[in-house]
Structure formats: structure tokens, C-alpha cells
Design goal:
6% strand; mainly alpha; 58% helix; elongated; seven-stranded mixed β-sheet
Length: 700
Amino acid sequence: TFAALVVTVVGSYYAFGAWWQGVSSAVELYRPSDPMQWLRPSGGGAPEEPVSRHLCLFFLAYCGVDSVLGALHYPEQIDVGYYHHALYSVLLCYLLHTRQTLLFAICGVEELPTLLVGGNHLLGDGGNPRFGVGVVFFLTRVSYHCWITARALDRLDPLLYWVSSVLLITHVGWFQSYLAKGSLPSKRQSRAAARVATGGSTGMQGGASAGPLHERALWSMATRHLLVFVAMLVGQALLHSTLTARVLRAAMQPPAADGERGGEWCRAAAWAAYVCVGNLLVVAYTVRRLARALRDVYTANFISDSLVARRIIYNISWEDPAVEVAELRLGQRDVILTIASAGCNVLDYLIEKPAGIVAADLNEAQLALLDLKLASLAALDHAAFFALWARSDAAVFEASYAARLRPLLQLDSSRAFWDTNGELFASNLFFAGSAGFGARLLRLALRGCGALDAVVRGMRRGQAPDPRGWGMRIFTLCLSQMWLWRLLAPLGGVPTSQIDLLRRTPSVWISRVCEVFCSRMWRADNYFYYAYAVGRWDPHCCPRYLRPEHYEALRSSAHRVALHHGPLASAAASRDDFTVASLLDSMDWMGDEQIAEQLAALLPHMAPAGRLFWRSFGVAVHSPVLAQLRPTLVPEQDRVGWYLSQWVARAHPPDAPSVADPAEPSGFRRFLCVGSGYAPSNTLVDDAAVCLQLARHALR
């Protein structure tokens, strides 16, 4: 912190001098006639002064001392410091040798973020990335560094220019990592998000009414912070592009040369080409890293943001319930535990008249969606129910919500949600939420390819358009690009963990995409794609729960659905006789330890003959925890097609790990495939002996 304070103060002095004297002075650092003469000793033409030279010596000493102290006292925290200190030690020695220390002095203000981080550590808040530090880091180590590098290009030797460019790229990478660590939320925001994730105060009971208001305020603050970062990244891209354009324009004007100086002209032209290519590569790489930083922030926070803001993610359920109904043979003796999602699958199960259904979800908006569907079953006739949920008829909602639907809602949070979100029906519920945004992007892509009208006509007729048409060819080609899925999938509510599963077998995924868009989605009963292509459901293509022949069965069984705000593990504690647990695709979202925790809490509440069903973006069981259940691959193909495999397993297979007492710390850990914890520690002599044996083996 002290070193950062010294460098920041002195660097701010020099940076202010460069700014005060004008841009032209800042880039002409090494001319004796430079307007920045006041920064130099009174009598000399040497391009430095004692203060800047002593600053370099001070920082060089700091790098050496900090490396030694870090190795002795905090080796686990200085891993990046070795790289940083070694690079700056070499750079400082070069600057001292060539007497160009003014450049380091003017860039000393870039240590301001380090000073702020050190201050946070001293105040006991060092482990929590802060929004202000991220802004200062970006403005100093990215924008300011980029400006100085570009404007001083004609006064820097090639080595210093490329070192400065490498440092710029490094700073962009650090900024991306900083965003990934969560610089948007503060400590208070983290606590509020933790309350929501654990099913804490919903703000609807007792004196907790300030809870949701506080959480919404925090979410609004995080949104504003994200918008500020977006503005900064866009501004940086424009700044870097503008500076690069100026550099290219100057480099493309070689000096006038007569016949005797043709060699000098060729060298100047070669240097211009070298600078042009290098600058274009640097700006392209920098803009790409900044775009990835934005994508990473969104993908890491879109679920938690939706939970805190109580926003719908899925407007329809994208898991085909016909597969579970057929494979598990659901009946009147079944008690089902599942995820609420958009409620489509819950209502489809309800047609089979099970003894009970518990629908859990972390997102209160998703529970509100299912809650309103259940209330609609009790209060509306089939014509009104179909108009509301198949046509997104806002008139039906406005006419019946306050007097007939609101009193029948099970949850207070559902009333709070629909009191303020009735406009979702007016703007078409099929295009609401993250999945709805993905649907809009899909329609936009189809329209751009000139294939939207053909797709809509084909959907209504149940007939695929000609796949040889140029529009469908372009559309299929785009959807077969894995990088595009990784970029756009989170906008449709698909986490990156599922995309990572697809990347294990890209050829399988590409062939499945082509098969889905060339044949499967055009089935007459494929209501999933029909909804997003046409913007509604029609009587000939809709979920089972919207058909009139099942309506009375649904109405008579609607009271058997219980809603639970929280994870499946906590919802499982509500009963001890679950015969079916439909996990949808939730296992793809979790790591091994999370899966083990969920199973340890769930399985003790399953009946002896209970079964689990889940879907996956992987072609095989992706978790060793799930593999211990000895699941069976379901050969039935669903209508959606995105899931490359579907699995069913017995809740209590023979010789499975015991979870009789999940409260014990070792309860869920019995599912984890862990070793003894022994880690060999070799000495340098041991490593040399191993290398010698490998060499002998290679020479046999």
C-alpha cells in the first residue's frame, strides 16, 4: 500500500503536467525543446530528471522486497505477483539504462487501483471486489494506458511500444478476471442475494416487508453498475479504434524520398506496415477480450439477477413431459417432486391424477406463473383459460384477475408479482423473460435470413420448408456454430455449464441441430417451436393441459399441487412418500458437490420404489455422483431435441451409498468420489531422479 501511495502521488504529478501542457507535449517526451521542459533538470537535455529516476529505483526495490516477503509469509497470495514483479523489474532496468524513466513516471498514476485495494484490505474489506475499484482500474490501466501508448508511439522505440501493448493486453485480462470475481455486488448485495438463494425473507410476512424493497434496490444498483461498465467498454472500444486509426493514418504517410534515399523509404514503408498490422491485432484482441468480459458478467449473473429482481426466466417449459409420462407410467398412486419452471410440465403430470405434486423453484416469478395457472383452472372456463394461456389475451387477465384469480393464489409473493406485472400478457407472454428474449432473437435471425414467413407457414401446416433454400441453409449453418451458442445461449436461459457439456461432443450437437431444424420441429404436435415461431398456441398444436378433453380432470386435481419457494432439497422435506422426482435439466447446472448435497437431502424422502428422471446436454452421465445411481438411458426421443440424453434411475439402487442420516457432515460426501487426501511432496532431488528414470526409459 505504501509503495502504491508513493508511485500514485508522484505519477499523478507527472500525469497532470502532461495533461496541463497539452497532448502534443505528452507525446514528445524526449525532445529538449519540449514544452514539458519544466519536468527536466535546468541545464540538460537528458530525457529524465532525478525524481523520475529515483521513482524507478524505489519501485524496483519494492518489487524485489515484496517478492522475498511474499515467498516467506504469504506464498499462496503472491502467485501473480511473481509474474508482475519480474516483468516490471526487467522493464525498469531497461528504462534506467536508456534514461527513459519519465515514461514510467507519467504512467505511475496506474497504481491508483492498487492503492484502493490496499486501503480496502486495511479497512477489513479486501476480499470483496468493489465497483469503484473496477471503474478506476479500467480508466487508469486500460483507457489511460491505451491513450499514452498510442500518443507516444512516435517517441518510443519498438521494444518499449510492444512491451506497453503487452501490458495493455494484460490489464484487460485482469479486468476481465476482476469482473468474473463479482465486482458488481458489494458486501451488502452479497448478503441480500444469499438470503434469496436460501429461501430467506420474502418480505411478505411480519416485519420483513422491507426485504424485497431492499433487494430490488440492490438489484437496481447492480444493474446501474453493469450499465456503467457497458458504457465504459463501448467508450474504450471507440477510443482505441480512434487512436489506432490515427496511428495507421500517420504510418501510411512515408517520408518524402528522392532517388538517393530509396532505401530509407523502403525501411519506412516496412515499419509502417509493421505498425499497422501490430496495432490492428492489438485493438482486435482488446475489443474481443472486453466483449468476453461483458458476456462473462451476464452469464454469471443472469440467474441470480432474475431471482433478486423476481423476473420470469422461462415462459414455457422446454422439457417434453410426454417422455416422463410414458417412461415412468405416472398414475394415481404417484407423489411427484419436480421443478416449477413455467408450470407446463406440472399441469401435464396433473392430467394423470397423481396423489400429489410438490413444485419447487428458487425464482418466485416462476412460482407465480404456475400459481396463476392453477388459480385460472379453478376460476375460468376452458375458453377463457385457453385465451389467457394460449393467446396471451390481456383482456381476460384484466377482467378476471382482481375479483376471481387473485384471491385463489396460494402465495403472497404471487399476488405481489401479478399486481405489478400484468402487462406481460399485453406484450405477449411468449416473448417474456430470458427465454422470450431468446425467442425474439430466433425470429430476428429467421427474418434476416428471409425464412421467417416460410417457417410460420410450415409450422401451421406441419410441413418443413425446403432445407435446400438459401435462407434455411444460412440459418442452419449459423446454429451449428458452437461459439455462437456459447455467446447467445445465456440470453435464452441456458447456463454456460450446459454449453460446456455440448463442447465435449460438438459433432453430435451439430448433427442434432440440423436434425431438429430440418425435421423434428415440424411435427404437427411440436408445440414448443410453434409457440416461438407463431407467437401463440392454436387448438391443433398446444400442450395437453390446454385441450378441452383434459380440462375437467385438471380442475378436479388442481388442489393436489403444492408450491414451495426454495431448492428441491428443502422441498423434499415436506413429505416422505415421493415416488417420482422429475429433476428436469437441473443436474447440468450443478457441480459434483452440489449434486451430492441435493441427493443426500432428497433420497431419504423417496419411497422404496421411487424413481428419478433427468435430462442432460451430455451424451453420457456427466457426474460420478449421478453414476452411482446406476441410471438407465431412455431411448425415447423428445420433441424438443436439445437434450442429448435422458436418464431414469431408482432412488435406492442396490449397494448405493447410504444416506440414512443426511444431517451428518459425511452424508452427502458419501456420494463424492474422493481420494485419501494424500498429496506427495517431492524434493528437487526426487524430481531429478524421476526425470533421470524417464530419460533412461526413453533411451531403451
